[in-house]
Amino acid sequence: MLRKLYINHKKIPVPVPLRSIADAIHWIESTLLPSGHTITRIAINEKLVNLESVKSASTLISDESRLDIQIDSPLDLATQTLEALRNLGLVVASGLKMLAYECWKAKPPFRAGDIDALLADINLMLELIEHCIGLSDSMYLDSSAIGGIALLIKRSSTALALARSNGDLKGFAKILLNQFEPVLKDLISEAESLHLRLLMKPQSKAASTGT
Question: Fewer Cβ neighbours under 10 Å: the N or C end of the chain?
């Protein structure tokens, strides 16, 4: 039976017999998980495990087992996403001019590694923005500005991918500096602004689990 349960680093009493990880997760979700909150991390005896896999498994736990759970609110997830988005934007922005210069001066055959890495980073930005918009909407926070920026980034990404596939490095460099760099600066600024608005938004009282 589970005796060592920690939620957000706080030890939680277990008043019911829990003999499997699936039982423990079901009990936590039905009794300890505040509305709108999400289990984002599970560790068994300090080893990370996948939530969906353990929910459907019948892995037994003993008195000596330790279960660590991380529960995050929509605010937690949104701020983490915005921080990741801003940091990614800053990293990408720091290398844009050098990449544009290398593309402008390059002659075929060229190494496409940096270009492909940039396109992958842009796709990741768009995924982070989509995730952030969903979380912001759930908290009734206006995310229309960052949504508009996402549309501009998609257009730039499409143009960059086309130039990449055509081997038009000079065109790629022009799009990078004339289209993508300005909207990237807007994205970084809006991510910072939205992050601040999230932190200033009144929140409900934290749950007893420490979330």
Answer: N
Asked whether the bond before 15 is cis by omega within 30 degrees of 0, the reply is no
Q: Which two tokens stand for residue 104?
A: 């402008």
Q: List, in sequence order, the alpha helices (H) in the chain.
A: 21-31, 51-55, 74-105, 113-138, 144-165, 169-175, 181-200
CATH number reported for the structural domain that contains residue 21 in this entry:
3.10.20
Nearest to 172 by CA among 163, 181, 180: 163
How many residues in total does the chain contain? Answer: 211
**Total-model pTM:** 0.73
| Domains identified in the chain, total number | 2
68/121 same-domain check: no
Please give the helix or strand (H or E) that residue 83 lies within, else none. Answer: helix 74-105
Together in a domain, 63 and 83:
no
Q: Could you tell me if residue 34 is inside a domain? A: yes
Q: How far apart are CA 21 and CA 67, in angstroms?
A: 8
Query: How do residues 66-106 score in pLDDT, each as one tens digit?
Result: 989 999 888 888 888 999 999 999 999 999 999 999 999 88
